[in-house]
């Protein structure tokens, strides 16, 4: 038998044809009553609802069954609201009845430490091929089939936004809030303890669901970072995903652990994962839904040219500030377009961007200006601002805008902010419905268009490429397993350098010369100037015994230095065993950067690039990606830092060898993926030279986990 | 006669006993009609309103007068709505009538280039002792006396927030918006072109106005930065001032110039001025009013210990993230308090901070937990979060919170976020009224408490001290006037060093030796190692002619270097006049910082401190203050940078001489204040050494303005 897709598996959960309520109750104060009542109140056909309660014959006018097994028709979804200890029993009944999916509202499992009991539920469900949502959930609200299988008092409004939430309390609150704000949802799913179905499965479902245009998630933590990343990458290719990820600080992470028991990956890793998979990260739920509405309603822009049209200079200024904050590019309006716009403003209006129609602007001017802007092939998106004036009606202005938007084919995103009272509120609801997402403030409108751009730019990104990297894996395996066998958690500097070399990360060669002649041969090969240092297990502070000579410029100097070192060391440390003299090339000062890796418990290897050195450590000028890092990721992460400008040639300096740094990033990424034993890699400083002259890792540190 | 205070002068404008409307009209579509109607609709006594129109005898049931001079009683405020060219004529009538204040709604002055006409208005008003608001305004709304002297369709709700706006369009829009949001205002004042009365005067008025608790301003630019700073410093001592300052980017500044003709000071200078005067800077109007409501309603906290109480883990997590963003310090809850809180939650609730009462929380639990928290002397402020649940009513929860708040004396700030629909909206309006500012999202509540803390911390700051600084002012005057006389806009490096020395900023001494013997004497005095460099007006690249010798370690070396330099220069640059050889001590590498000054057109000298060097220039790790900089300002500005951690001794390094850097900041501040001719000062790098060893300015640049 072919394995069903996640979409097929979850259909009975989210679009059920029949629903049984196990634990349905006659007492109105009980959740078992509320869930049943909510189902009926939500408009779900009563003949498809089956209350299960061995002690009742009828509830709310419906025939009651002692067990789900007694229901005369197949059951798609069983909602379970019985006490925790009864759940496994009724779950087994569901298995026998071949119920397709269960939603367990009952609490008292992992969230109170009852891990075993929860695993038992999963076992029962899996063996029967049932998908299981919960336990410890508020329920599921599906506005498509009108299923309110939850104890949320009402269904959300119909809409195209799916909302998945790891917080149940938030679910109920946000149903009310979205109704108040006239924001429609396709579904609201509380995922509770995520014993089986989690946000990743639901992303897969909603990606294929024809009723959902935008997927939103309130997330405290995912349990499988790498699957999250893979699935999110696929889903965002067809639908936007917006996540509100809470838990940025240590205290927050502690709070999350205490109330959901979730694995806490670092916020940095989440941020990197979202970036790499095109997931938009909202910073609060108002922003989350503002963005979702925009992405559900507006088309995507084809280019970067944004125009702001306003009737108030102040609002225009606010939007301009916000545009810079949210990464919108305000276009310089070409003269011919400016002339066309001139028709819709008084002589003291402005055709700079923001285009200021002034407080005299009428419906006709707004309509005309928007139409002219949208008809111009150089304009890609428009922000329309309107402050309620004494001479205009907001609904009238809205009509004008909608007319212009539709007349030009509704092909470019237009967002609006209407500043005013109740009439403006009505106007922006009308606008949003018509495809022009509209808000109460310029910043919200600009932020929403910013989200549209963020998504559009992600979709336009070049395909990721992962070049084949040749490495000497066996050599590294030997070093790492050797060290682990010795019970060490860190490689020695020499071992780390050898690992780096084996993975093609340039490190200074440090060959040992055992004679004056050999020192000269090596020096000639390495190139001058060179450094000579004595190699002796007994000597730690080489300088104190005259064991180091710097900046040696020729063969003659090498001979002299070799002799002087031996002489001095023999004199000052007569007891030391001299193994020879290390010869190394003087490393010229390069631009200092850092490449690093830390293995995140949720996402695996997180690769870091940034400015190196002590001062910049304070500055925290760094960027992150989850391995494997592609060529394009490496380039993007470098560009996210400020030190990139230095590498590109700040203040007339020549460009550094950026390609060689990119190469090091890819090789560190590969090293981390090849050896799960490695917990941390630190290439710092990585000296970077002029273009074509490469880079060199002055210091490499490698730590292992047990 | 004693000069009236600003408060006395502006009382007739903002709390008028009688109002004349000059240009009152019978045509409902005219502003002259609307203003009159609005006055009456707003509830202002009709017998105190006097329409002026030579062509009418009666408007809206009121007797009409041909001129303001004909009004039989004294006129406090004349609102002028006649065409621009008539304004001076009626203004002269006002002067004759001894009208106390005028508000000129009419446009067509400076904003369209008519600068002269506007100056003429000011002249007329000043000579008659009338204060003048406008021109080009929407008007004034005063909810205290019920004066709607504007073309805003209605009055705002009564309240304690004064709103001053430089954007007229925003005024009308925000009246509607504040009514919708149930936010009350004491006044809304549109300041238009600010020919006479500006935001500074109004700040002074509202500081004394008993009906206003919080002053809010939408500001695009002030014309007198230094007066703004002085007045704001005084006003914030008694009332919070919140400013929404638009115009952060170049494009925004251009937009502002184009529509208000305001002088554009740099955003950096505004930011510094706000910081120094305790003005809170909001980033959008929603935040502005959220903060204003909080500051109008809640008491100030006495300490930093904040507790979050929630019924949903998710909301708690969001608030915790926000707390870190808005600078709130969540307290570690002491065991005895935790025990008391335990009574108001199920066993799986949490007494960590956030305190999680869980979804089972009732009115009694909320009330009990809040009361226990407020009664504890260690707790200074509380954030209460509530997600609407199936088992509770938001209004009920609100009542519980209000009861606890009042029972404990309403002495500590409590803010709340109620997440849900229409019932929550009602609940948070009730809460706000009762002194618990409440919002729709955790972030808004935390941000509001953050604003309360920002203000409270400002009030607690130590008094500013300005130590007397001894300098040689005449020596500097000679150098600067000398250079200006020669038409130069920059001092030479030697001159700049001399200025620095005269103002006590340590620079390396660079005495000139005219003989080998003299070079030795100087070197002995400075201490070794020293550097010798040839001084010749013809020689620019000293190295190329062998004109520099570094790292000279003793007198013998000095003699040898002196001879070699002369020999080499004579040979390689035979035509050059050799003035002698400069002797300077080798400057040891210190921690690099920068101290600078740029003279802002609006605020005057802006002093900068930050990390020095090329890399950190990319990082822009800098902070700013308006001169004069106090000891405390200098300290605070240093602490705002990341490089401060380096100076304090990062990673076990010893602490640097922070006091000496502070001293340089104060001295640069004084230099800038003493010489308005100086446009820019750049002390970079300033090498800073170990504590007690001072700092030294390696390079000093001084530029002048004409």
What does this structure look like?
Two copies of one chain form a homodimer. With 706 residues, chain A is α/β, with parallel strands linked by helices. Chain A has four domains: 6-293, 3-Layer(aba) Sandwich (Rossmann fold), CATH 3.40.50.261; 300-460, Succinyl-CoA synthetase domains (Rossmann fold); 473-585, Dna Ligase, domain 1, CATH 3.30.1490.20; 591-704, D-amino Acid Aminotransferase, Chain A, domain 1 (2-Layer Sandwich). Chain A is built from 24 helices and 30 strands. The first copy, chain A, is flat and about 105 Å long. Residues 259-264 of chain A have low confidence and may be disordered. Chains A and B meet through helix 5, helix 8, helix 11, helix 15 and helix 21 of A and helix 5, helix 8, helix 11, helix 15 and helix 21 of B.
Features:
six-stranded parallel beta sheet; flat; Dna Ligase, domain 1; alpha/beta; seven-stranded mixed beta sheet; 24 helices; Rossmann fold; 4 domains; homodimer; 30 strands; 706 residues
């Amino acid at each position: 038998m072919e394995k069903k897709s996640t979409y097929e598996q979850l259909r009975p959960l989210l679009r059920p044809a029949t629903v049984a309520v196990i634990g349905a109750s006659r007492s109105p104060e009980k959740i078992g009553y509320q869930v049943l009542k909510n189902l009926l109140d939500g408009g779900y056909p009563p003949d498809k609802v089956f209350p299960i309660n061995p002690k009742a014959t009828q509830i709310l006018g419906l025939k009651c069954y002692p067990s789900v097994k007694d229901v005369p028709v197949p059951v798609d979804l069983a909602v379970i609201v019985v006490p925790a200890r009864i759940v496994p029993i009724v779950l087994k009944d569901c298995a026998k009845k071949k119920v397709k999916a269960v939603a367990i509202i009952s609490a008292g499992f992992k969230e109170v430490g009852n891990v075993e009991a929860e695993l038992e539920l999963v076992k029962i469900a899996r063996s029967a091929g049932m998908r299981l949502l919960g336990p410890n959930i508020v329920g599921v609200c599906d506005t498509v089939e009108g299923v309110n299988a939850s104890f949320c008092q009402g269904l959300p409004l119909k809409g195209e936004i799916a909302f998945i939430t790891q917080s149940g309390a938030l679910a109920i609150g946000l149903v009310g809030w979205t109704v108040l704000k006239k924001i429609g949802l396709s579904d609201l799913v509380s995922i509770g303890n995520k014993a089986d179905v989690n946000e990743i499965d639901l992303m897969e479902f909603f990606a294929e669901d024809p009723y959902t245009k935008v997927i939103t998630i309130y997330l405290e933590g995912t349990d499988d970072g790498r699957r999250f990343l893979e699935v999110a990458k696929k889903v965002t290719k067809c639908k936007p995903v917006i996540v509100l990820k809470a838990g940025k600080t240590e205290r927050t992470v502690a709070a999350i652990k205490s109330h959901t028991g979730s694995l806490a990956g670092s916020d940095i890793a989440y941020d990197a994962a979202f970036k790499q998979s095109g997931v938009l990260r909202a910073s609060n739920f108002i922003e989350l839904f503002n963005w979702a509405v925009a992405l559900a309603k507006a088309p995507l822009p084809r280019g970067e040219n944004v125009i702001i049209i306003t009737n108030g200079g102040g609002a225009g200024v606010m939007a301009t500030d916000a545009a810079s904050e949210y990464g919108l590019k305000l276009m310089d309006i070409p003269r011919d377009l400016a002339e066309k716009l001139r028709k819709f403003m008084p002589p003291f209006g402005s055709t700079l961007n923001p285009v200021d129609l002034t407080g005299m602007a009428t419906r006709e001017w707004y309509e005309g200006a928007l139409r002219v802007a949208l008809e111009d092939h150089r304009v890609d998106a428009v922000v329309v601002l309107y402050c309620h004036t004494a001479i205009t009606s907001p609904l009238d202005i809205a009509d004008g805008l909608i007319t212009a938007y539709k007349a030009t084919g509704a092909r470019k995103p237009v967002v609006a902010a209407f500043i005013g009272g109740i009439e403006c509120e009505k106007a922006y609801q009308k606008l949003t419905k018509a495809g022009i997402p509209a808000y109460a403030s310029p910043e919200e409108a600009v932020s929403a268009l910013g989200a549209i751009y963020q998504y559009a730019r992600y979709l336009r990104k070049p395909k990721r490429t992962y070049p084949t990297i040749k490495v000497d894996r066996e050599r590294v395996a030997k070093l790492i397993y050797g060290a682990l066998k010795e019970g060490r958690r860190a490689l020695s500097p020499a071992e780390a350098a050898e690992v780096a070399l084996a993975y093609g990360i340039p490190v200074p060669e440090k060959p040992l010369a055992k004679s004056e002649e050999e020192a000269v041969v090596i020096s000639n090969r390495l190139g001058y100037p060179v450094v000579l240092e004595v190699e002796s297990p007994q000597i730690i502070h080489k300088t104190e015994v005259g064991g180091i000579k710097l900046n040696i410029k020729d063969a003659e100097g090498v001979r002299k230095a070799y002799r002087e070192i031996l002489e001095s060391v023999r004199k000052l440390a007569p007891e030391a065993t001299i193994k020879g003299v290390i010869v190394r090339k003087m490393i010229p000062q390069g631009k200092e950067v850092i490449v690093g890796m830390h293995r995140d418990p949720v996402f695996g290897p997180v690769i870091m690039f940034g400015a190196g050195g002590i001062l910049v450590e304070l500055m925290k000028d760094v960027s992150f990606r989850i391995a494997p890092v592609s060529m394009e990721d490496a380039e993007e992460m470098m560009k996210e830092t400020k030190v990139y400008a230095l590498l590109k040639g700040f203040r007339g300096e020549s460009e550094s060898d950026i390609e060689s740094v990119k190469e090091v990033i890819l090789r560190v990424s590969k090293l981390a993926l090849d050896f799960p034993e490695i917990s941390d890699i630190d290439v710092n400083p990585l000296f970077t030279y002029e273009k074509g002259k490469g880079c060199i890792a002055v210091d490499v540190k490698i730590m292992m986990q047990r």
